[in-house]
Amino acid sequence: MKNKPIYVEILIEDNVERVWEASQNPTLHEQWDLRFSSITYLPNEENEVQLFEYKTNIGFGIAIAGWGKNVGTFHAKDNSRTSSLHFGTDNLLSPIKEGKGYWKYVPEQNTTKFFTQFDYDVQFGTLGKLIDKIVFRPLMGWATALSFDVLKRWLEKGDAPSAQYLRFFTHWIITLLFFFVWIYQGLIPKLIMMHPEEVALTFALLPLKPSQAHNMVAIIGVIEIIFGLIWILYRNKKRLLVLQLAILPLLTVSAIVADSSVLSHPFNPITFNLSLIVLTIIGLFLSKNIPTARRCKRVR
Fold first, then answer.
1. Chain centroid to CA 65: how far?
2. pTM for the whole thing?
3. Mean of the per-residue pLDDT values for the chain?
4. How far apart are CA 285 and CA 197, in angstroms?
5. Which spans in the chain are helix H?
6. I want to staple 221 with a disulfide (CB 3.0 to 4.6 A). Which of 37, 186, 230, 262 is the partner?
């Protein structure tokens, strides 16, 4: 079971020296690379080999530490540079056992083509290779590509990596929240429980028979579930936020018109929907300039 090496390429509108410095200086590197929490260069007697230690925090106070060797090469023929890497860890929490790869810096007019390819051996035999193929390797490729786009935005626009990651993770927390809310609202009170209040509100708003009101509640539940799934599957989240910003006030007014007594309930349409509206507005502000792994080329 041989997995393909990870390859990521991006074009950065800056010179080779700046890209090299941002990726070879450990203080700068650890700011934009999502895969590492800290990188420490070690003193060594072999000038051509740079030894380093890295640490990756995985949460709950747990970190994976490893070692690495880095050799930089300058190619006078085309003014490109290569950084050859050898890395590994003895930590059993890491799927990676040992690996090798390179970073390449190729000047192209006023830009730099920055790309990497690396591969590694995994722990835990066949099971480890299967987990790597299905979960870890795609995750590593995505994290590398996202980090490269963060670097690109930092060098081109001066957008600090910390600010980019704050926008990125806040954006996805809001996205997952809306996914959960719409799925839950459609599935639990409408399809599974068929809550009497849902039926009563629908019956009050629409000229339907009682049996038809039950069917309409079920249809609305299915629509809400589909909308929740779209939050995960559809890429243009800004369009969904704009659509939601139009839908939520309509739903709020409709619930009040159908039965004004709902205003006395805890977590009523005013307080609940107003919170969602505010989060939607925040999401709209955050939807600009979010880094993405899709900007990178993933195949040689």
1. 23
2. 0.89
3. 93
4. 35
5. 16-24, 26-32, 125-131, 137-157, 161-186, 196-205, 210-233, 237-258, 269-286
6. 186
